[in-house]
Amino acid sequence: MKTIIQRGHLIDPSTQLDKSADIYIDNQLIVGIDDAPIDFVPDQIIDARDKHVIPGLVDVQCRVRQPGSSQKANTASETNAAAHGGITSICLPPDVTPVTDNAAVVELIHHNNQKAGNRCHLYTIGALSKGLEGEQLSNMGTLKRTGCVALSNALKPFGNNLIQRRAMEYAAGQEMLVVIQPYDQALHADGCAHEGSLATRLGLPPIPEAAETAALAKDIELVAQTSARTHFGQLSCARSVDMIRQAKKDRLPVTADVAIHHLFLTDRDIDGFDTNKLTFPPLRSEADRDALREGLKDGTIDCICSDHQPHDIDAKLQPFPSAEPGISGLDTLLPLIFRLVDDGILELHQAIAASTSNPAKIFKLPAGQLATGELADLVIVDRQAHYSCEPELFYSAGKNTAFKGWDFSTKVVKTLVAGKQIQ
Amino acid sequence: MNNANLQLTDEGKLKHFLSIEGLNHAILTDILDTAESFTSVTDRSIKKVPILRGKTVANLFFEASTRTRSTFELAAQRLSADILNLNINTSATVKGESLLDTLHNLEAMQIDMFVIRHQDSGSAHFFAQHVHPGVSVLNAGDGQHAHPTQAMLDMFTIRRYKQQFENLSVAIVGDIKHSRVARSQIHALNILNTGEVRIVAPPTLLPKQADTLGVQVFHDMNQGLRDVDVIIMLRLQKERMTGALLPSEKEYFRQFGLSSERLQFAKHDAIVMHPGPANRGIEIESSVMDGNQSVILQQVTFGIAVRMAVMSMIVSSGKENP
Q1: pLDDT higher than 80, residue A257
Q2: Which domains are present in chain A?
Q3: SS3 breakdown of chain A: % helix, strand, coil, rounded to 5?
Q4: Which CATH class is domain B3-146+301-320?
Q5: Is A47 assigned a catalytic role?
Q6: What is the pLDDT of residues A234-243, one digit of tens each?
């Protein structure tokens, strides 16, 4: 199958590509940009006039709920949502049931994706410890061989700091990326809202900043000790941004991401006990949100993820402290990323890099670039669309969005995954 | 949806009673005046009026309670309602029924008004969002968020003894952090234009940015009580010792207990209040609790009239908006 995408405005910050040109695709690969390969006879021509063409998004924190919680969503529904949302690569954390701590589970996850039609590239993050129990190291070498792109203990604590250090050391020896979402369980306690004036007023059990920052400080020290290449996920606090900035200055091998909703929402948004805005980590103050934006701008934070957590209706149909945290983010990631540009928060090339080439580089994925010889993972987007966010129209099985009714300017027109158009 | 919209009709009358926040001076005064008119009912030999005749009130308590539940029950009875008492912590939800299913099952029994206590902050709002139109929710305490009828009976007590709020200095002492009572009292006192609202507690028993609630914060009891007109003592839960929030009961009493010596720091005619149940010798000395400045038992009596007032106002708002 040979395809030409004609006259689109191509943007790929990783190769400084920013011009109107044609893209030539042969099967799974991009075989030419601007210049047609010799004897290229297309089977189909896609007209991308007045549209932007960018690399497919890479989402490093996404839950498809399978295996384990398929009442909420499954591989088929969520990879389809990802593809229709312009996301062509997703990474799944290991806290599924059973835990991704052995080859069989990794294979099961890939088998599920194959059965669902490989609608997007799916990568697994393996467990750092057996069963995520934080006591015994997982078979990291095996996990690496079966295709895990990183290792993490998700939100489960280690038995003690020594075990965490050893896990990071061992992972470093395997040249595996370690992913940490910094979190101190004791400081978090039974909290469900950012510790600030709003939680005080609503009487919601508070989550102090230190639940994240105290853990992050320790984690960074362990990076210094072990030299494990470490990616910090879903930061929420201004102080965390400062700490990552300093760690990078100290030339530690650290990178970081932020969930898209933390760039838009604050604890004010949970007023009225809106369970669709119950997240983990919690939505924090305006100052925190602004610091996260600033961190993206100056490169302290490398990428933006969806932190996609689809839920069934009952999970959110509870009083606030009893509801389950998380936002269904695949359907809104791309329009929100462009809204960062519309709102003047990021330059276009920064926003695209943070959601394509940067995460691909950190997780070493064959993705995130519009270049000859690369996989033809790309999205054609319409920047002149005007529509409002309607959860009923989501492809994801989870309708639990925090952005219902928001105005978006950018819409996915077409997604190609490894050269194949997603219908 | 904010609190005010949810609990008021389009005409600005009470539809539910969920939190003090979002109500205005006029409504709070209306509640106090209506309660005043009901105190005469409670003093009569036949203590009944037919305002809620033919209505069914369900007391839905997911947390243990003695006085709140029983004064709601008496209030409903004195308004001639039928009353159903349900202690849910021993009932359906233990068997795995969801909260909404429990609520809808009870609605199927044609309940007109739910009096709900639940351990989650925001649960009263949650129920109010999901009941059928025409069915009302009264918050009898939701987590650490609000306990509005308690706050109103406290306001009633203060007005009875001090006649006004503008020139008063009121100190609330104790575990503010975990207290829905304190939050509701602070809102009510501020809406009623109280001269000064103070809270007195060690930092471990205060929520962060407590001053944003519109109060003066004190960590020293003697300073906090100086020249106040009203002292409201809060109950100290025994669990607070195990959570490392406090060193010991003894230490707490020495620093924050209301003794007769400490009472001297307040104005000589200051009144002492407590929402109950009180821990004698931990937050309050027996001689103060039983002393002539204490109005703690009067609070309980007024609680019935205030709850009658709120229930009757909700029913009358429903009549105009069928």
Answers
A1: yes
A2: 58-362 (3.20.20.140)
A3: 35, 25, 40
A4: alpha beta
A5: no
A6: 999 999 999 9
